[in-house]
Amino acid sequence: MTQVLDNYNIKELTGKNGLVIFFFPRAKSADCSIEIEVFNHKLKDIQNLGFNVVGISTDKKEANEEFAKAHDLNYPLISDEHKTITKQFNDLTTVIRDGKEIERALRTTYLVDPSGKILATLPDVNAITAASDTINKIKELQES
């Protein structure tokens, strides 16, 4: 699949039961590489629960294209360069990089139902356990 979306319709991305939207701070960084890989590895498990997956960062499209291709992802990434989506989710932070202040996404995962309602927020996720934590949260929601 390995795609970075320009035009997208959230409803088209959403699975039968919902969509996992995970924000990652920076393409090609070590932790973000781990996070996208664990979601790729656990994608079938998530889809079996009726959810699809999309990753979002504030990186340029070209950076995410290289990132997605290098990891042969089976789900799409969205480059939110203008921070429109990231601001809607109130998921921005300011960091200093190369002596400049920049805004970037926090490492947060959201579970969204087919109508667009946020079912759960997983803040400050651990890159290594992000997908497993997401699966556990989906199961918890489905059991309640």
From TrEMBL:
SUPFAM superfamilies: Thioredoxin-like. Keywords: Antioxidant, Oxidoreductase, Peroxidase, Redox-active center. The keyword Magnesium does not apply. The keyword Oxidoreductase applies. It holds the Pfam family AhpC-TSA. InterPro entries: AhpC/TSA, Thioredoxin-like_sf, Thioredoxin_domain, Tpx_Peroxidase_subfamily. Residues 1-143 form the Thioredoxin domain. It comes from the Bacteria. One of its GO terms (molecular function) is peroxidase activity. PANTHER family: THIOL PEROXIDASE. This is Thioredoxin domain-containing protein.
